[in-house]
Prior knowledge:
Strand order of the largest sheet: 2-3-1-4
Radius of gyration: 14 Å
Helix content: 10-25%
Largest sheet: 4 strands, antiparallel
Number of helices: 2
Distance between the termini: 19 Å
Order of helices and strands: EHEEHE
CATH class: Alpha Beta
Shape: globular
CATH architecture: 2-Layer Sandwich
CATH superfamily: Ribosomal protein S6/Translation elongation factor EF1B
Amino acid sequence: MTTATLRRSYRSSLILDLRGSTDAPETVIDKLKDILKSIDCKVNEVENLGQKEFSRAVDRKFVSGLYVQFHYEGPITAPTAFREKLRLDRTIDRIMTQVIR
Length: 101
């Protein structure tokens, strides 16, 4: 098997910073789904967990964020490619990706 044919299931949890954005949260989530599809991933489920306050805020002006989880299947390079595509996006505050077995 080559690296391109190996596929796994992933769960990516993101915290979105929508303070400076004029887009609705659903629009930002749809853009993220399109990014996942562009790197050859099949999005199975999207969970909007809502706005939650941080237990320890690093920035006094950013005390809560929108939590979103994506469940998807993709090649083994998908988490790295997803993180790289979002690296310069200011609406993304944190990304954590887990492999689902």
